[in-house]
Each structure stands twice: as structure tokens, then as C-alpha cells.
Design a protein that fits this description.
mainly alpha; 91% helix; 0% strand
Length: 102
Amino acid sequence: MANISNIHMSTRTQVVLRIAAALLGGYAFTWGFIALGMASLFAAGMPFHDAEHLTGILAFLVFLGVFLWAFAAHSLSRVWLVLAGGGVLMAATASLLQAGMT
């Protein structure tokens, strides 16, 4: 009987970690996407508010995609690496791009 409760606890923990990855990691990834998208489009000559609105609209689709992927992916560590790492990488790239525009 103890093994069954441990299995359920492990499953519950996995679900909680997937939810956290989908929400927090998805938010970080989407925020990085918006930052990089806005900086790139503005650097390419698009007016600021047009770039802001376009990336904001696309961000809904990006968040939906990464949210669903967080539950479909086999490896939870890969999910965290891609979402959090990708978000940080895109945000850092956007920051460098913005610094180069001034």
C-alpha cells in the first residue's frame, strides 16, 4: 500500500512541476519573445506601436504553444531548459539589440 501512495505523490509532484513550468516558464519564454520581437521589428524600421501590437498579438499564440508543449514533452528538465533558458536568452539578445540602437 505504501508503494501506491508514493506513486500517487510522485505523479502529483510531476503534475505540479508541469503546471509550474507551463505557467512560469511559459511566461518567461513569452516575455523574451515579446522583448526580442519588439526590438527586432523596431530596429528593422517598423513604428514602435505597430511592433508592440504585433508582438503582443503573436505572444498569445506563442504562450498557448509553449503551455501545451510543457505538458506534451517527455522530459520535464528539457521543458524548463527551453522555456526559462530561451526566455533569458531572447531577453538578453533584445537588451543588446536595444543598446545598439541608441
